[in-house]
Amino acid sequence: MIQSFLKTFSCSVFSAFIIDFPTGDTIMQKTITIRDVAKRAGVGISTVSRVVNGGAGVNEATRERVRAVIAECGYAPNNNARQLKQRHADAAAVIVRGAGSMFLASVLELLQPRIEALGLRFLAHYIDEHDDEAAAARAIHAEKKVRGIVLLGGSVVGREDKLDLPNVPCVYATLDARTVRAKNVFSVSVDDRAAAYAATDYLLARGHRNIAVLGGRLDAENPIALRFRGVLDAFSARGLAFPRANYLPAGFSFAAAHAAMDAALSQGFGCTAVFAMSDIMAIGAARALADHGRSIPGDVSIMGFDGIALAHYMLPRLTTMCQNAEAIARESAALLALGLSDAPGVRHVTLDAELIEGESVANSSRPALDRI
Fold first, then answer.
1. Cβ–Cβ < 8 Å for 318, 296
2. What's the whole-number mean pLDDT along residues 339-359?
3. pLDDT greater than 80 at residue 277
4. Which terminus, N or C, of the chain has the lesser number of Cβ atoms within 10 Å?
5. Per-residue confidence at 55, pLDDT binned at 50, 70, 90?
6. Is pLDDT of 43 > 60?
7. How far apart are CA 326 and CA 80, in angstroms?
8. Domains of the chain
9. 239 burial class (0-12, 13-18, 19+ CB within 10 angstroms)?
10. Which contiguous run of DSSP H or E holds residue 344?
């Protein structure tokens, strides 16, 4: 018979917590992991990690719910803080560039169990979408002494030498880094240029000529710049020129995409189709189109990029170029393991993107330059 329920009940999302049940001279122990904490709070593993680390990208209601679960577990903040200040020679850091990316968040969550399966502790670190992830990697390595680093999002231009960290494999996930000569740099990505070509050609083949493109900054050699080249390639292959005024720059968030599309429509801009360089952008733009009385796909067709789960539940269901988050996470962990072993092998992996047809694209019934 249990004489004292909950003799020891302590909780830590990184080191797990123990419940001791006295049974004579034997102590029965149940280890509860970060997955259990996430399940209790009804959130993802990465969300719990962000709350504990004070990271961005978690709304206040969710943050409070996670904190409540931690409080119920008897979590000791001082113990956790002491762990985070240690130099983690047995850890790998994952740097996420942009807290608002639902796609990167999905890759992050899939990466955690794979990194832990390598016997490494998992450290997530968020930076702004315009910050230098290579500089962040060097700073984290100097402070934590991590054994490996995975970078979600970013650019390699001007940063080729910043990641030359001897014996510390650095894996760019979602970015082709084969131009970096450092032996410790690996990468896994889709062919962004080819994927954007396929997306644009899909719209052109359905009679759309006045296509708006919603994307990020084009002043760096990053996936967005490669996708824009794919757009230009698709137009050129059909003997057409893409009107540069149809490129609408925006941040990677629902609100930023909505604001960019709303501003364009308010100024009389018209198009028969929109290619958004992320699903989040597509959903934000769709809301702006609806606010201006445009139906999808009746008045305007819209296509996204990434293949996040939310795209499947949008009304109408979003047509999108899907990056395989599971494959990106799997290959990233495999490359990290390869770097840790210092064995020869493939250092840069290119994956195929898949066009997922939803309900948001229709054939154009309008003249090529008709304005809505």
1. no
2. 90
3. yes
4. N
5. low
6. yes
7. 30
8. 1-85 (1.10.260.40), 87-190+324-352 (3.40.50.2300), 192-323 (3.40.50.2300)
9. exposed
10. none
Give the pLDDT confidence score for residue 369 in this predicted structure. Answer: 38
| Residue 214 to residue 276: CA distance in whole angstroms | 5
pLDDT of residue 57: 63
Q: Is the pLDDT of residue 161 over 80?
A: no
Strand order in the sheet with 170-173: 121-127, 91-97, 148-152, 170-173, 185-190, 348-351
What is the reported pTM? 0.74
Task: Please indicate whether residue 329 or residue 343 has the higher confidence score (pLDDT).
Answer: 329
Highest mean pLDDT among 44-58, 121-135, 263-277, 343-357: 263-277
| Angle between helical axes of 254-266 and 279-291 (0-180°, round to 10) | 40
Q: Position 173: which residue type?
A: A
pLDDT at 282 > cutoff 50: yes
Cα separation, 259 vs 335, whole angstroms: 39
Q: Please state, in angstroms and rounded to a whole number, the distance separating the CA atoms of residues 160 and 19.
A: 48
For the record, the structure tokens of 213 come out as: 């493109």
What is the predicted pLDDT for the residue at 32? 57
| Token digits of residue 159 | 């940063």
Fill in the DSSP letter of residue 219. Answer: S
Residues 322 and 155: their CA atoms lie apart, in Å, by 21
- How far from 145 is each of 55, 72, 86, 89, CA to CA, in Å? 20, 33, 9, 6
Tokens standing for residue 130: 């315009």
Q: Is 108 helix (H, G, I), strand (E, B) or coil?
A: helix
CA atoms within 13 A on the CB side of 324: 15
Element (H, E) at 204: helix 192-204
Nearest to 126 by CA among 97, 165, 155: 97
Separation between Cα atoms, residue 248 and residue 370, nearest integer Å: 19
d(CA 352, CA 334): 18
